[in-house]
Amino acid sequence: MPEQLPYGSWPSPLTAAWASASALRLDGAAFVGDEIWWGESLPDEAGRVAVMRRRADGSSEVVLPAPANARSRVHEYGGGAWTVSDDGILYFVDKSDQRVRRLRPGGEAEALTPDEAGTHFGGLRWQRGTLLAVRERERDGASPERHIVAIATRSDDAADTTGDASPVTVVAGGSDFLAQPALSPDGAQLAWVAWDHPDMPWDRTRVRVARMGDPASARDITDGATAALQPEWVSDDELLLLDEPTGRWNVYRLDANGHDAAEAVSPADADTGGGLWVLGTRWYAPLADGRILAVRTHGSDELVLIDPSGRAVPLPFPATSRVQIEDVANGRALVSGSAPGAAGLWTVDLADGSVSAVRGGAPDIDDAWIPHARQLTVDGPHGPVHAFAYPPTNPDAVGDAGELPPYLVWVHGGPTAHVGGTADSKIAYFTSRGIGVLDVNYGGSTGYGRSYRDRLKGQWGVVDVDDVAAAARGLSDEGLADGARLAIEGGSAGGWTVLAALVSTDVFGAGISRYGVGDARALAAETHDFEARYLDGLIGPLPEAEDVYIERSPLSRPERFRVPLLLLQGDEDAVVPPAQAEAIRDALVAQGVPHAYVLYAGEGHGFRRTETVVHALESELAFLGRVFGFATPGVAPIELD
Predict the structure, then answer these.
(1) Rounded to whole angstroms, how far apart are CA atoms 188 and 211?
(2) pLDDT digits (tens, 9 = 90+) for 493-522
(3) Which of 28, 31, 130, 453 is deepest in the core (most CB within 10 A)?
(4) 395 in a domain, yes or no?
């Protein structure tokens, strides 16, 4: 029989080390003959991204050994840092110098691109015997210059990487940003996605087409009024792409020569598409038999097969969050995502729908420890607010009679991101101890259509705060949470919302900010080029909207900080530099607000090292126990200044 114990202090076998090990971070996957290859961030190796492979006999091995690290810096968030040819040759971007290298398994890596400081490659794609990539070159006193390039891969073409004969050929340019190159079946035409400042790729983009080898022939095949994404050729003159003229991202069919209007393949009140934060992201894949495999999102993710008539058939799939199609070949698909308790990679048989795990995908604990999400919609001042509530879940414990549980309210980053209702290992870490988690898709999140996403336009620091507060109040009003023990946590843009909520509402009794933004003007001045104009849409253009930046920034209202705050920061963060966290810390010191500031050496925007992930998670638990007055057995206490 479960023991009656105070919420927050329940004994749990789910340690922070377990949560870290279960938080699998995949970085691409591909079929290579009868093998399956995938990229994986290894927390025990400081987050190094290794490429692994599973042979037909089920054995696995590392293809890309240390010290090589397949990570791109294009757009700072990278993505597409490796690809593999049909004959099993690995091409990857090495984090150390951002050069593209070639590796035959068991051999030595060879550099293909010149050694040029400030030059980055990403979005690698092997198509029709051609290695395509996005190249980014930093420039003194100007924004980086970006092109889509073809990289020579034959030994004779790539031998000289320092002289005049360059192994890199520009095949597309002319825009501030380029992504998702796709080569037609005959190799004659190239399609890609382009956009320019101040737009972000979920605001407005253009899909462009050019003759391969003739960048000057580029033309737009979408009108630039919407956020069109992921062009994929299905014949020499016809493409599929994602577009949202109705307010929902759906798959469209389009004649590349402009002879016919784009036609929705299978219209749905759900999104096939999302924020293009990471190069190489795929939300759908055309199949050789004319069907389309797609991910549809309305709250949670769903995998569907669309037949040539447009009929969509849902496929049973264990993951309902962060689902991404990695590759398709020979009647099978490789699909990644987050399932309850663990992220994973699976194969899907497209004939019978059967699913087989390749990596991860199932927690190594009893399901009784994994909470089930409750989808919650509350009325907020700006419209409905969507969230997922995860109640305290422990087969060996229940709360004391008459006690309501504390809740940790999570605010995702982006802010144009999305959470999909799957309890990951970090959620289970808290819920197994008697702390509920409320994961909020505030206005501005993807997954609910364009109008929901655009709710945040010009209103960052207002709508997000109001929506998160409304969701937290709704949970408390239903009698599901202790309204006096609500904490709020977020990272990056989510950290901004944490800080803004603490200075503008009285809903939360504590806050946890992971590399959060405290000064919007400083962010606009200091951040990297990909997001350099992001705030134009979220707050307003500078200098015209400078007063709004000052008014919205939490650091402009330091006297409003009143509740304890935990600040977690990486010292190598180029997106939100440590100066932001240190300015918040200084404000808390001046106001006499209890706080702790932890700076992690060698960490950037998002923590990757095992020791960091474990320490941060245990620090959060200790902090909540200290503030809300419950014991945290097995975790070192935290000191607040």
Answers:
(1) 6
(2) 999 999 999 999 999 999 999 999 999 999
(3) 28
(4) yes
What does pTM read for this prediction?
0.93
Where among 262, 284, 306 does a domain terminate? 284
CA distance 419 to 438: 11
Closest CA to 504 of 466, 549, 456, 457: 466
User: Residue type at 501?
Assistant: A
Same domain assignment for residues 489 and 406: yes
Domain limit, last residue, from 284, 299, 325:
284
Q: Tell me the mean pLDDT in the region 313-342.
A: 94
Same domain, 170 and 129: yes
Range of the domain at 171: 28-284
Contacts 24+ apart (CB under 8 A), 98-104: 98/72, 98/73, 100/124, 100/131, 100/133, 100/151, 101/68, 102/153, 102/158, 103/63, 103/64, 103/68
pLDDT tens figures, 210-244: 999 999 999 999 999 999 999 999 999 999 999 99
Please report which helix (H) or strand (E) contains residue 536, including its range.
helix 534-538
Do 335 and 256 share a structural domain?
Answer: no
Distances (CA, A) of 97 to 113, 117, 496, 584: 11, 8, 32, 33
Q: Are residues 295 and 277 in the same domain?
A: no
d(CA 27, CA 39): 5
